[in-house]
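Re: export button greyed out
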Amino acid sequence: MNDFETILRQLERWLEVEFSMKDVSGIARDIAVLPKKDQDFILVWTQRLSAAHVQIATLFASQAPDLTRRIDRRLIEAWVMQSLDAHDCNGLQAAVNILREVDRFVELRHEHTAGIVLDDVRGILLTFARGLSGRHLLLDVSEDAWTDGETLYLPAIVARMENAEDNFILCKALVAMLWAQGHFGTMRVLFEGFLADYPDQDRALLYFNRLETLRLQACIARELPGLFREMKRLADEKLPTIWQVYAEFLSSASASSHDSLALLHESLQSEMPPPVCYQCALRPDAVVARMDREKALLRIKLSELAESLQQQPDKSRQFELKENQTGGTSEMELVLDDMPVAPPDNVKQLLSSIMLDFGEIPPEYLVAAGPGEYDPDLYRATHKDPDQVWQGTYHEEGATLYPEWDFGRASYRKNWCVMREKDVPFVHDDFADQTLARYAPLVRQIKRTFEGMRDEDRLLKRQSQGEHIDLDALVEALSDIQGGSEMSELLYARLYRAERNIAVAFLVDMSGSTKGWVNDAEREALVLMSEALEALGDRYAIYGFSGMTRKKCELFRIKRFDEPYGNAVKARISGIRPQDYTRMGFAIRHMTRLLQETDAKTRILITITDGRPEDYNDNYRGEYGIADTRQALIEARRAGIHPFGITIDRQGRDYLPRLYGPAHYVVIDEARTLPIKVAEIYRRLTV
Amino acid sequence: MTAPDKLLTLTPQHIAEEPYYQATSGEVALFEAAYKHRLPMLLKGPTGCGKTRFVEYMAWRLKRPLVTVACHDDLTSSDLVGRYLIIGGQTVWMDGPLVAAVRSGAICYLDEIVEARKDTMVVIHPLADDRRILTIEKRGEVVHAPDDFMLVVSYNPGYQSVLKELKQSTRQRFVACEFDYPDANTEAGIVMRESGVPIEIATNLVKFAAMTRNLKGNGLEEGASTRLLVHAGQLISAGLTPAAACQSAIGEALTDDADTLAAVLELSSSLF
Ligand SMILES: Nc1ncnc2c1ncn2[C@@H]1O[C@H](COP(=O)(O)OP(=O)(O)OP(=O)(O)O)[C@@H](O)[C@H]1O
Ligand SMILES: [Mg+2]
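Workaround output, generated via the alternate export path:
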């Protein structure tokens, strides 16, 4: 045991008390009462820190005795280390700030190690929520968890639980509770409105929410018993007796929101138990606003529909909804003046959303909106929708519009990219010839290999089976029998249909970053590749891409599928020059379309890029660009195309498997080896 | 062909035992009407919703033999119509399954018709209109279909590429019947009966299927079919935990995407 006197003397020396005149006896006293190992821990660190700065050491020593009692030693060390780092990088004040906010540090630390960052699990949670609900829900960040029925709001970081696993369960539980609000009728009651009867509306809402949480818990226990088992582990609550009675009552399968309402008045007399960890907030105004918006939108869509159906505008505006049984399936059908109409997709979505809210479509919802009945602001979402802002104000002649995947909204932005095809300007020089000369031995070898892979329709004779009889073989065999020898069984002819029947599109990065070596390597690679493909006979096309914001997405034609390889193509290859940025989704979507229009048994899309997709000054960076590119590649795959990525990017290969899938990409470390490698890569892809 | 022409044909089999089929709407009556009027049928619907089982059941019910051909992209017209073989030094004509079905007045079921090569359509067309004939070009023979022959084809409009859409000239020859997954109770009954799991588990499997069907177009190309539910049920009956069964029989079968798979598994583990 270090006694008080020894500790005090040590502290006075390290903390330079003779200059500062500070009284450190209080600190020494705090330390003296600790167990020996804690004393040593604090003293060692105080000494070390004093070498950096006395003030740092003092701040540490004064807080440490208390901290050793409540915080893990390693955490304290991490905290001290961080302050030292801060001192080295940003000076004394930075270090002092960290030391002063030890609790903040501990909290952040916990969030880092055990917390769930919403952005990391957004995809899973959204899919989870959509699977549960059958609605095209969105996910967004907010202080607490709540929903208007269209968007689920969750905290950016969920870290209430000890470890990451439990925090993820908490996320799921929150999503399930939000789903339950819609599915089990809480939202409907919010829409009907009941708060007006209560003098203290905020309090009434809190109590109602507490009661509903009890009821929804029981609903989840019935519907999702697997999840509920885990939820119980997170929070095993002890309710006051009267609330236990409420809970039991509300747990019955027949209990509804109206039962919670019925209990509300009485419950307000008691003290409310604290909320459970997965309790969500209720926002009646947001729910009402969303439902009103949908009603308005539906009625406006119906009036558009009515207009397209009726000649005179003074006819009936009341639609009816019927279920139409055909075959084994039932379809919703709208009826106006005895005329059945199949609802367009957006109307169908609205109908099913309203149906989920009310269990039926209230008849007043089916009245087509009259002229001037709705202010456009009413049905437009309060946050402005970029699609709508943009539509109608921007006309693009001769451009093709492509959607883009917005990973934040987890949905497409429609008609988002304005795409144009352009020709690469000719540069008539000897680039192609020089390349061929430089790589002459390689070119010869490539040609030989590829010619060997070329297959023409051949009649294979003397086969053990086939659609034709090989008459020559048969005649021989018959005479063999007559001669007394055994008959061969190889008597068939078979048409060997090994036509490769492959169409391949090359999509080449023409972004500004390819300037220099990469651009040269790309052009050389294309020359060699064209030679190889000519030898092979596969159909191919070459396009370059680049973009500058979504309104200037450009695809540069270098060779179309039906264009022969000749001087024009060579001059365009030579003319490839770096342009702007790497917006990639639209390019993949367009190539997918071109490939689909080509009749081939196997369709391949090979992208050659020098790094991750990125665009100038809009959000096509980082995760967004990768997510859109990934989505475009998924679409391509669905369309029966095999995408393959060749990347010259030494830094970030981490995103490649997510884009292309494992084994569907290669990374080339040296740009200059691209021309040598590309033909071999293609060969391996198609043997 | 100068070689002596012996003919070999298979006799299509009758279905001895009543296959279990749970009718979902008027499909049985529709099929019988088509049969009576010698009209070919087109069954549309997602994979694994009971089309094949339905045809088996109808063949049994109408007491006709059944010939099933699963079409694939290498299926040529010879595979349907037949080819010459050499047996014991003699050339022998071997009827293909379609011809065998026509000759014996069977029901011929061409599964996933769009997968077949285009030249097969040429064979089917005259058989599917009121001529009801089949030409065997190599033999110079025309076979007239007897009244009890029936052609049934299936087609999944859901996820095929633009190149594989059924041509109008083909589809307009058929009486179409649309199939979909049965309603929840019926489907649970089917799963229970086919896999032997208790009703609670079957009900939960069907709920899980509904969740995955919610995700169609939102991460999944298709939701879980009745077939996959039956598979999962069979694994559970064999002693696997529901979570493991859902993962292997359903989740992994639906997607390779790690995030989507994780979410789908979360859904199933929430249910059980
Ligand atoms: N209505 C039903 N009655 C009985 N069993 C059914 C029914 N629907 C589906 N099944 C079950 O689902 C399984 C798959 O059905 P089936 O093989 O008929 O599907 P399919 O529609 O032919 O699919 P595909 O298009 O993939 O060929 C059957 O083996 C059976 O177990
Ligand atoms: Mg089938």
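DSSP finds 28 helices and 19 strands in chain A. The button fix ships in the next patch.
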